[in-house]
From TrEMBL:
Database matches in SUPFAM superfamilies: EF-Tu/eEF-1alpha/eIF2-gamma C-terminal domain (SSF50465), P-loop containing nucleoside triphosphate hydrolases (SSF52540), Ran binding protein zinc finger-like (SSF90209), Translation proteins (SSF50447)
Keywords on record: Cytoplasm, GTP-binding, Metal-binding, Methylation, Nucleotide-binding, Zinc, Zinc-finger
Ranges for domain RanBP2-type: 50-79
Protein name, UniProt field: HBS1 isoform X1
Predominant location category: cytoplasm
Domain Tr-type G residue range list: 295-519
Keyword DNA-binding: no
Chain spans, region Disordered: 213-234
């Protein structure tokens, strides 16, 4: 998988002919035709499958036979049973034994590509219809009720030392340098090892503490929400979940007497390593010096429906801020024009692979950096196409905040909010479930609607309703009308067309107004590995990822899980610059020595040698089921995503249904779980994953469950069970 990291300006740049103001782009009609042609060509190509390869049913890429998951979109090869949302059974058919794909699956890709085109706006007409409003709003309310209630049920706790408050904080902030999401084949190398270790891991474990989560029904005002709980060293983690009570009408329910088992990493170590009852104490260097003169790192995920202009926006921003040189920009423009895709020039700054450029869509997360006045921003440009949501998940789990890009043009905005396949909707839900509570909504392509205030207000009203239903507080959502193509409202005040009615901040100022989430320096190191770079010649392995907790520095020893090997940190890089120390929240490349290549895998975790992360393939989860058509049954097969790992999962037991308001058990051992229900289930994974209970670590205790290319449920790990 090509790593997509933007290293910034080429300082040898001596090209200055490029004139930004004259930069022009293709008409949308032309663009659509381009995409259609490509799709047909691609389809034709897909007829031929190489021998010794298997074709991904999701993105149609022909993978090496040794790959257990698609090298491009990360879809698992062996996820055999599907819960179809569409009832389309023609798409994916697998041999039960080898997990080989029989049908090409090309139709899925082609269909989904064209599905989104159908809604594209033809050129610049501005017409506003109230069509489907009722459905949209009704739908939004249903989701709002369920999602909010689920959030609330997990939200507040007034108890002991564990904060289960943030209902769906799958992951607190974080990004990393190289977010190429697919797990490498190296993951397979260590799987046998993995299983052995995980059984060791679990067999000696006893649960140490039972946490009673008190809950109560009540209404919380906007200010009663900051239920931050001091953790270990007194460092607080901001808890958004408890302040997701956006409006008085949204009652914040609390679970009563729900007993969760939890186990601290300290306890694990004692049993597994024989080092008795270690109490973790951060060393002085691990806590940042307030006087330190360096911009804080802000991990910013760019998400949104396909073709909303995320990459164009990112490319334009980087160019305006000097991270992409004129020379480089000119090259992109020239190449894009040569391929008949002039309008994609800015997007090509981030969409670097031939396949992405050919298809005109982003497939993997691109990582770039720039400095604002307040932050060193790590930009994570996500793919918007539904087939690449797994990649989006891996990148966005690291986000401290997000920019949700929506296309203002007629039909396109509506397509993004479509309950089936609208990625504005799915991305917003996912991003919220990762614990992101601050969001900037860029209403892009305002040029297409002639900078109409009416259209902007309509988008704001409809999307605002939906975002509230996801748990975003009104005060944490910033609205920025913009045109990436015409450079309006990105880094400076827009011209009269926008400025006549919009006086809010431009995008760059909006980014500076974001708050940095509190970082947890008081806990032992945890860094989920997003990607690895292996240098055969130098025998060196580099891992990329965001530190969830703790700190590392050159020379530190780290434990690599699940292989349980210890390595030494040879050097650290932040934004391709060498650095000595990295702390919680930093997105870094860690160059390791004293470790063999095959002991490090993407989806693994770097930890403190005395405080290993847990490893298991058997989990108890609390889940909120989204809008599915076919119920989840015992035996249902899903795809489980947790930090940068994913595994095929089988629901082995449905323990109970929960009241979304109170969290109380309403039914024990139900036969199935329907849309929008809350439940406790047990899942067994095909391979083990590094995991923590949510009570211990939010970042490693949040999961999302997917099936047939759609997210079907969001969940929290409530218990790690003995590996099966
Ligand atoms: P995916 O990553 O595949 O989801 O797409 P994306 O959201 O990154 O969209 P991308 O940046 O690739 O842009 C898609 C198309 O929209 C390109 O043809 C862009 O030129 C066009 N586009 C982006 N921003 C604007 C804008 O502000 N105005 C107009 N008119 N077109 C835009
Ligand atoms: Mg893109």
């Amino acid at each position: 998988m090509p790593l997509k990291v933007n290293y910034g300006v080429d300082y040898n740049d001596d090209y200055n002919v490029y004139e930004d103001d004259n930069y022009h782009y293709d008409d949308l009609y032309e663009y659509e035709n381009e995409k259609r042609d490509i799709t047909h060509q691609t389809k034709a190509k897909q007829e031929v499958i190489r021998t010794g390869a298997w074709r991904c049913p999701i993105c149609t890429y022909d993978n090496e036979d040794s790959m257990s998951e698609c090298d491009i979109c990360g879809a698992l090869r062996n996820c055999l049973v599907r819960i179809s949302q569409t009832g389309d059974s023609t798409a994916d058919t697998f041999h039960a034994g080898g997990g080989r794909c029989k049908s090409s699956g090309a139709s899925v890709m082609v269909k989904s590509l064209f599905a989104s085109f159908r809604h594209r706006a033809p050129a610049k007409s501005v017409a506003f219809e109230a069509k489907n409003d009722a459905v949209l709003i009704e739908d939004a309310f249903i989701i709002r009720r369920n999602f909010q209630e689920f959030l609330r049920a997990f939200s507040s706790q007034k108890h002991q030392n564990i904060n289960i408050a943030a209902p769906f904080k799958f992951d607190s902030p974080s990004p990393d340098d190289l977010v190429s999401t697919r797990l490498h084949s190296s993951k397979l190398d260590s799987k046998a090892n993995f299983k052995r270790l995980s059984s060791l891991d679990m067999s000696t474990r006893e649960r140490e503490k039972n946490i009673l989560i008190e809950s109560e029904l009540g209404t919380e005002g906007p200010n009663s929400s900051s239920a931050s709980v001091a953790r270990d060293g007194g460092v607080k983690e901001r808890d958004f979940a408890s302040d997701c009570g956006i409006k008085p009408e949204i009652l914040v329910s609390r679970m009563r007497s729900v007993s969760l088992s939890s186990k601290s990493r300290t306890g694990n170590v004692n049993e597994e390593t024989g080092t008795s009852n270690l109490e973790y104490k951060p060393e002085a260097w691990m806590i940042p010096d307030q006087a330190e003169d360096r911009l804080s790192q802000l991990n910013l995920a760019i998400v949104g429906h396909v073709d909303s202009g995320k990459s164009t926006l990112s490319g334009r921003l980087l160019h305006l801020l000097g991270r992409i040189s004129q020379k480089e920009m000119h090259r992109h423009e020239k190449e894009a024009k040569q391929q008949g895709k002039g309008s994609f020039a800015y997007a090509w700054a981030l969409d670097e692979s031939a396949e992405e450029r050919e298809r005109g869509i982003t497939m993997t997360v691109a990582v770039a950096f720039f400095n604002s006045r307040k932050y060193h921003v790590v930009l994570l440009d996500s793919p918007g196409h539904r087939d690449f949501v797994p990649n989006m998940i891996s990148g966005a789990t690291q986000a401290d905040a997000a920019i949700l890009v929506v296309d203002a043009s007629m039909g396109s905005f509506e397509a993004g909010l479509d309950p089936i396949g609208g990625q504005t909707r799915e991305h917003a839900l996912l991003i919220r479930s990762f614990g992101v509570d601050q969001i900037i909504v860029v209403v892009n392509k305002m040029d297409v609607v002639e900078y109409s205030q009416e259209r902007f207000e309509m988008v704001k009203q409809k999307l605002g309703t939906f975002l509230r239903s996801c748990g975003f507080k009104d005060s944490s959502v910033l609205w920025v009308p913009a045109s990436s193509m015409e450079n309006q409202n990105l880094v400076a005040t827009p011209d009269e067309r926008l400025f006549s009615w919009f006086h809010g901040p431009c995008l760059l100022d909006a980014i500076d107004s974001l708050q940095l989430p509190a970082r947890d320096y008081s806990k032992p190191l945890l860094m989920p590995i997003c990607d690895i770079i292996k240098s055969q010649s130098q025998g060196q392995v580099s891992t990329c990822g965001k530190l969830v907790t703790g700190a590392i520095r050159t020379g530190s020893k780290v434990l690599i899980m699940p292989s349980r090997e210890v390595a030494t940190i040879r050097s650290l890089e932040r934004d391709s610059q060498a650095c000595k120390i990295a702390r919680s929240g930093d997105n870094v490349t860690v160059n390791l020595q004293g470790i063999e290549n095959n002991h490090v895998t993407a989806g693994g975790v770097l930890c403190h040698p005395d405080f290993p992360v847990r490893v298991s393939n058997h989990l108890e989860l609390k889940i909120l089921v989204l809008d599915i058509k076919i119920p989840i049954l015992s035996g249902s097969q899903l795809e489980l995503h947790i930090h940068h790992a994913k595994e095929a999962a089988t629901v082995v037991k449905i323990l109970s249904l929960l009241d979304p308001k109170t969290g109380k058990v309403t039914k024990k051992s139900p036969r199935c779980i329907l849309a929008k229900q809350n439940a406790v289930v047990e899942v067994v994974l095909q391979g083990s994953v590094c995991v923590e209970e949510y009570a211990e670590s939010r970042a490693l205790g949040r999961v999302s469950l997917r099936s047939s290319g759609r997210t079907v449920a969001l969940g929290l790990v409530t218990q790690i069970m003995k590996t099966q």
